[in-house]
What we know:
Layout: H1 11-34, H2 40-67, H3 79-84, H4 95-119, H5 127-147, H6 153-188, H7 201-216, H8 220-233, H9 238-247, H10 254-278, H11 280-298, H12 305-322, H13 324-339, H14 347-362, H15 368-387, H16 394-407, H17 411-426, H18 430-443, E1 451-454, H19 477-493, E2 511-517, E3 520-526, H20 528-540, E4 542-544, H21 545-552, H22 556-568, E5 572-574, E6 584-587, E7 597-599, H23 617-634, E8 642-643, H24 644-654, H25 662-675, E9 679-680, E10 686-688
Parallel strand pairs: 3-7
Antiparallel strand pairs: 1-2, 2-3, 4-6, 5-6, 8-10, 9-10
Helix pairs in contact: 1-2, 1-4, 2-4, 2-5, 4-5, 4-6, 6-7, 6-8, 8-10, 10-11, 11-12, 11-13, 12-13, 12-14, 13-14, 13-15, 14-16, 15-17, 16-17, 18-19, 20-22, 23-25
Amino acid sequence: xxxxxxxxxxxxxxxxxxxxxxxxxxxxxxxxxxxxxxxxxxxxxxxxxxxxxxxxxxxxxxxxxxxxxxxxxxxxxxxxxxxxxxxxxxxxxxxxxxxxxxxxxxxxxxxxxxxxxxxxxxxxxxxxxxxxxxxxxxxxxxxxxxxxxxxxxxxxxxxxxxxxxxxxxxxxxxxxxxxxxxxxxxxxxxxxxxxxxxxxxxxxxxxxxxxxxxxxxxxxxxxxxxxxxxxxxxxxxxxxxxxxxxxxxxxxxxxxxxxxxxxxxxxxxxxxxxxxxxxxxxxxxxxxxxxxxxxxxxxxxxxxxxxxxxxxxxxxxxxxxxxxxxxxxxxxxxxxxxxxxxxxxxxxxxxxxxxxxxxxxxxxxxxxxxxxxxxxxxxxxxxxxxxxxxxxxxxxxxxxxxxxxxxxxxxxxxxxxxxxxxxxxxxxxxxxxxxxxxxxxxxxxxxxxxxxxxxxxxxxxxxxxxxxxxxxxxxxxxxxxxxxxxxxxxxxxxxxxxxxxxxxxxxxxxxxxxxxxxxxxxxxxxxxxxxxxxxxxxxxxxxxxxxxxxxxxxxxxxxxxxxxxxxxxxxxxxxxxxxxxxxxxxxxxxxxxxxxxxxxxxxxxxxxxxxxxxxxxxxxxxxxxxxxxxxxxxxxxxxxxxxxxxxxxxxxxxxxxxxxxxxxxxxxxxxxxxxxxxxxxxxxxxxxx
Length: 689
């Protein structure tokens, strides 16, 4: 039998396919193994992939050298040798070209996708390692490309980054819009914006263009609709976050911010004014709140103040019946709106509207709790206006202080109004006293790295015997000396001040600290306590929390808030995330900012957004629990009349473990009245089911 002669197989083709398949499997297996890894582990996994690539190149080169006799038998090549000497004679495919193709299609795309998916937008820590890993990726790919004659390998790196970022933005934005709804999308979509320092400025600019196209441009109509819906439902909370985002937009997004602003002004005000007839209480509350909180951004003003006063008149009875303190807050906010500066403000018109509002709410009520709440809240708003230089005119401020003094029913309330009049009169003497004090303080800081000055009266730190508007803070030596100096100035400057004690109002006074970091001069504006703490670090450099507390004698809770504000401003560096007794703090001498003038947030300030609105989450949960227990208790006491004092006593007996404060019980009573569980009788102090 004759057997046909076996033909020689195409060893080149077989070898190429075998080697290519082996290489692909090796890479894919490694990728599959590390897909569950995140954060720093992903960086480690990337290095593993690169080592696998090199090892496979060594193996492929060794196999091929046994096949191709033209290639040197020397197996001790450098990595460049793996990519150049192991050539396939017929297919003209080098091991390096194969490695470049696999690396580009399998490894590189995967690692970039993981970086955008988990590191840039959510991974905290290992920043230096991540930076090094991305730099290594760029260098590795550039090396592969140059060896194999690829055109512009550095450009391919940028193309790959932009392609992966675009895919990530498009996918995530669409998914968020589908799953979260427009309101939450407005808040969360901006987390996708790339702000990492791992890429060049030119690359970041291109990435921001992609963000605008994928996340903003395509959804502008949706976002505009969402902003209107937000105002209808939650004008005080979510809208504020939206405005903060708009304020932070760079020049490229300024056009969108402008469109959004006009849309919000037009549509949102239309919705607010629609409530004027159907729900005057909501109209008054929302309009005051809207203008009060977002005045600096939107500059929205009442088109017709008479509509507002008319709605206020309609809402008056319901406001008083529901909650006297809320009525006081509404009245004070109304006053604050007309007393603040605005582009179209008229002093005569504001005076007319203030008098009408005063007659509508304050003059017609003789309830002491309402009057007391009005004076307390009005004083806080007045402090804020003076501190931030928002007052329309001092004459108008004095007019309102005199109205309070003249309309208050007894001496106790008149005394509180008199303190406001004293303060406004003191303002005239402020510049001279401020200058004298600044010279005195600076003489005590000759060796310090900063220039320190303090506004004494012009920013609402004034002498009065009893200050109820701000918690007491025990101040240390520097400010004690300041107080002594101011007291001496008062005693020598004017006869009227001799019988008045001086007390500090630290949260309503401001300091200006001029200092230099990295050859750049900054003007820092903060309250007196924050300034003192910062000056202490200029002198000491590094201190423990306990050391700062011992030196300043500031209570731990307040000190923690003050230091946190300085850490957030990047003026101090802490070795712990939460500032507390274990924290070690250091002055940040590498501080840098684009702004020359920086305002440091005061964590303890009584601003208009804090009053009756910002409730601690734990306190809110506690009030809900007390309220539910009270509701259960009252359901057993049907049709029985009870005084508020009796309710407080019984609730204290029922909830001994919780030990509710009288104010907490009163708040819970207000909630139950609104809910309809309780109702007020003709006497304010009695309630029935």
